[in-house]
Design brief:
With 213 residues, this protein is mostly helical. It has two domains: 96 residues, no CATH class; 59 residues. Helix content is 78%, strand content 0%. It has ten helices and no strands. One of its GO terms (cellular component) is membrane.
Length: 213
Amino acid sequence: YPPLTLFTLRWLLPVELQRENYPAITKIGPSLHTASAVFYTVVFYLIWQLLYYAFIVYGRREKVARGLRATSYTWLLADKDGFVARLIEKFGFGSPDDGINLYKVVFYFFLQFGYMLISILPVCFWYYRNMYINGIFLCSIFAVSVYNGASFYIDVFSRRYLKSLELLHDCDENEVNDGATRHSITCCPLRKASQTSANCSVNADASSDKKSS
């Protein structure tokens, strides 16, 4: 939502409403002051990070250690194929199998701090100054999010479909090996479910025919 909010307030909101509700936009002018923007962003980021450490990392450390609370840093540090876990392992702070220690958490926070600084610079240099660049960035975020969401659902449902095909194949092999072709419906759960639904539809059609007659 922050990129959409920036685009709406900066480019879509009329000047009269900007002056009335958001006077800071008109006072800033056509470009952001990079030093001030970075300074205030760092201040708010450090406040948020300290509160996060106090209430989550320290305050909920027992529940996080037992897996009762899922957090961003525990997820990223435990992901063996993720960029963060592999980078931490290269720096010698341990692999994902070694668990989460204080060095990993501190390194993760500094890495997140660097990412925050890098991500704010395009806003100061391009997105706030040029509507078209800001719009292209917003559309690219939307396209990537749609692609990731569609890929996730396709991956999940394709795996379920492949599992169902494997189950049918195993049932067919068992029927051939056992010679129990007459039990082909009852030996396979998928066929049993499909046969049950088919019987229900046949019974429903028969009852409707009786009522009509």
